[in-house]
Design a protein that fits this description.
By secondary structure, this protein is mostly helical. It is 85% helix and 0% strand. The chain has four helices and no strands. The longest helix is centred in the C-terminal third of the chain and has 26 residues, at 60-85. The radius of gyration is 15 Å and the shape is flat. The model has no long low-confidence stretch (mean pLDDT 89).
Length: 86
């Protein structure tokens, strides 16, 4: 990954944050969550996805994104519990 990729990804996140601040929609909140996930920031991704679900409970995309990110976040605990069960 080059320097330009890092700068471009950061500017994508900043652009999405601005969009969410000015006019939050389910689409831009989930896009922000997905972009955070791409750069490896699971905590911020989970926060953005949670906001999307809270503000737009009828959005399937928001719900699915939130569930997916939550599963990724909990994967370590899931593996530890599976190991204890086995």
């Amino acid at each position: 990954m080059g320097l330009f990729d890092v700068v471009r990804r950061k500017s994508d996140i900043e652009r999405l944050i601005d969009e969410v601040r000015t006019a939050p929609t389910a689409a831009n909140l989930t896009a922000l969550a997905e972009r955070y996930l791409v750069v490896g920031d699971v905590d911020h991704a989970l926060d953005a996805a949670k906001q999307a679900v809270d503000k737009f409970p009828g959005s399937d995309r928001a719900r699915i994104t939130y569930q997916s990110i939550r599963k990724i976040k909990m994967q370590g605990q899931i593996a530890a519990l599976q190991k204890r069960i086995a």
